Amino acid sequence: MVQWAKHPGRRGHDGASAALRGVGLRLTGPRRLVLEVVRGSDAHPTAEAVHQMVRCRLPRVSLGTVYRNLRLLVAQGLVKELPGPHTRFDRNLSEHHHFTCLACGRIADVAGPLTEPHSRALVSRVASSGGFSVTHHRIEFYGRCAACRRKGRGRAARRPPS
Ligand code: ZN
Ligand code: MN
After folding, report:
1. What is this structure's pTM?
2. Which ligand is closest in space to the CA of residue 3?
3. Exposed (0-12), middle (13-18) or buried (19+): which is 52, by Cβ within 10 Å?
4. Separation of alpha carbons 156 and 162, rounded Å
5. Ligand 1 centre from 155 Cα, in Å?
6. What are the sequence ranges of the domains in the chain?
7. Interval 35-48: pLDDT, tens
């Protein structure tokens, strides 16, 4: 049902390079690494988290450089951005929603088809209620993930962690 985003196949070096070339972006070391790191993570990392992972291999790269490259990759449609108090970055480009665990902060992908046809009906009700033209929508789910439920912790958590 809810999947902790797992994508088959390792996208290495060549995949990231080819993807950058495909959208006509100049191939710089930091840029390729930023894309590799986001594609290699199922954690919906923040810019700071991406920076930390990139620094393991490129110690002198700045947060600013990482951030600029993330923006560029989003603009080119190579990664997605999740708006919020702390912007997160998502390698999953398909239409999907998210479940956030309020105890551990993990964000899991909820496949788009899982919310169909209810979300489609909701969109058309919202659209006709206000004469809106709805281009897209997002559904956020919150609660406790299976692992945290097993541990029985996180009772104090009330707000979505940032
Ligand atoms: Zn959890
Ligand atoms: Mn996602």
Report:
1. 0.75
2. 2
3. middle
4. 15
5. 11
6. 10-90, 96-149
7. 999 999 989 999 99
